[in-house]
Write a structure and sequence with these properties.
The protein is α/β, with parallel strands linked by helices. 29% of the residues lie in helices and 20% in strands. It folds into 3 domains: 2-61, no CATH class; 90-97 and 296-462, Vaccinia Virus protein VP39 (Rossmann fold, 3-Layer(aba) Sandwich), CATH 3.40.50.150; 107-274, no CATH class. The chain has 15 helices and 20 strands. The protein has an 8-stranded mixed sheet with strand order 13-19-20-18-17-14-15-16, with helices on both faces. A 4-stranded mixed sheet has the order 3-4-12-11, with no helix packed on it. α1 (2-11) crosses α2 (17-29) and α14 runs parallel beside α15. The chain is elongated, with a radius of gyration of 24 Å.
């Protein structure tokens, strides 16, 4: 049965033919996939064969497997899905990661459990450790970091060259934890895999120089520092170091040779300057719970626009439960699915039917959105699972894909608390255009975050304090 289904699906252009066959048969029989291989010789009852044939017929029409199963795994749980909502994609987890990062307060010695997504040297596996004593001033994020070095364990990171020279150590020997990587053309990071299977950004030139492949360098996911290489501020920026317990720390360059506790410092106090809030903008890789330079939004509610199945807001609310959550969607059918997932998770999310903010004035500490962003001409060339089965209203937004985002950004900017943030998922070619919309609406510290495939996926911006 499995072999026949695999051949049939493959002949119809289904790329994951074997996996789809296994999932559908296991679903029809009500058993785990592994059980299929333990019961290869088991005869099938007539009703079981009928159930499998019905699923095969629907899959032949390229109906998404998630709709056939009625569920899709996303983040840390399985969500209910059907034809009223989009199928949750792994790319969207980048939006969840950034939301968690900006919601978690940057308190001293805070440990953020992450089930192995981010591994920091010196910390227990499965935890990312962030140690910050004070919050930076706006505009200081990323300033002054400019050289990539290598630690004793092969870790890649960004260091302040002034600190390395004063301490008599080479940049390659400063610190030993998860690092920021400068994405300037000379050191553009690529995706590799660490020994534990973790995906992260690595510097290809460094891998070549060590005789190792990019896939073997380091073992942590990486952040990319967006500050331009042409505008370094080594005298003013804090650099990354390691505390006695292996905690990741931002340190004052002037304190590297003086001993004592390393801490996050206000770079402007070291430089005697007040840089522009936009000086930290750029493109970064996703995959870390650590907010840029430890910045977090103030207390206040969170809203998820275009909520769909609810996978984003439910995932965030489970990770950061001490907030009030709201979610909206123009589709009543989508809200019914979202409501079922909210109940399953047991998280307090207030769902409201309506366009964008649906009359909710806020203000909000964080606005999240995964709006329609596919350009109409692009839609026609996508796979049949998308064009024939997923709700078009949740996908297409005009000729360039930005019709909804153009309305959303200024509305969101006007409803943010001072120090609040806006996070929007985008198409891989929309980063510059959407970032320009953020800045035109007065948002600062704008960034484009890449997903694990290296594609632009989330735009982030903040309302100045």
């Amino acid at each position: 049965m499995l072999g026949w289904m695999q051949e049939d699906f493959a002949s119809r252009g289904v790329e994951s033919a074997r996996l789809d066959a296994e999932l559908l048969v296991a679903h029809a029989l009500g058993v785990p996939r592994m059980q299929l291989y333990l019961d290869l010789d088991r005869p099938l009852a007539a009703e079981e064969l009928a159930s499998i044939r019905a699923l095969v017929k629907r899959r032949r029409e390229r109906e998404p497997v998630a709709y056939l199963l009625g569920r899709r795994d996303f983040w840390k749980r399985s969500f209910r899905v059907d034809a009223r909502v989009l199928v949750p994609r792994p790319d969207t987890e980048t939006l969840v990661e950034r939301a968690i990062a900006v919601l978690r307060p940057a308190r001293a010695s805070e440990r953020v459990a992450d089930e192995g997504r981010t591994v920091v040297e010196g910390a227990p596996r499965g935890e990312s450790v962030l140690v910050l004593d004070e919050e930076p001033e706006w505009g200081e994020v990323g300033a002054g970091f400019e050289e990539v070095g290598e630690g004793p364990g092969g870790e890649e990171r960004l260091v302040d060259p002034s600190r390395a020279s004063r301490s008599g150590r080479s940049p390659a020997s400063v610190g030993a934890e998860e690092r920021l990587v400068d994405p300037s053309p000379a050191s553009v990071a690529s995706v590799g895999e660490g020994g534990g299977g973790e995906e992260r950004m690595v510097d290809p030139s460094r891998a070549a120089g060590s005789g190792r492949s990019p896939a073997s360098v380091g073992a942590e996911e990486r952040l990319v520092d967006p500050s331009p290489a042409s505008d370094p501020s080594p005298a003013s920026a804090a650099s990354v170091g390691e505390g006695g317990g292996g905690e990741e720390r931002m340190v004052d360059p002037s304190s590297a040779s003086g001993g004592g506790e390393e801490r996050m410092v206000d770079p402007s106090s070291a430089a005697g300057s007040d840089p522009s809030p936009a000086s930290g903008s750029g493109v970064e890789s996703g995959g870390s719970f650590t907010a840029a330079a430890g910045v977090s939004v103030p207390a206040g509610p969170v809203i998820d626009l275009c909520v769909g199945s609810g996978c984003v807001v439910v995932s965030v609310a489970e990770e950061v439960p001490d907030r009030a959550y709201f979610a909206t969607d123009v589709s009543s059918g989508a809200l019914e699915v979202a409501r079922a997932n909210v109940v399953d998770a047991g998280v307090p999310v207030e769902l409201v039917e309506g366009d964008l903010f649906a009359g909710l004035e806020g203000p909000f500490a964080l606005v999240l959105a995964n709006p329609p962003y596919i350009a109409a001409p692009v839609m026609e060339g996508l796979e049949p699972e998308v064009t024939k089965h997923e709700p078009r209203i949740a996908l297409v937004a005009g000729e360039d894909g930005l019709d909804v985002i153009r309305r959303l950004v200024p509305e969101a900017a006007s409803r943010l608390i001072r120090g609040g943030a806006l996070l929007i998922e985008i198409g891989e070619d929309q980063g510059p255009a959407v970032r320009a919309l953020f800045e035109a609406s007065g948002l600062v510290q704008t960034r484009v975050w890449r997903d694990l495939a290296g594609r632009d996926r989330v735009v982030e911006g903040w309302r100045a304090r």
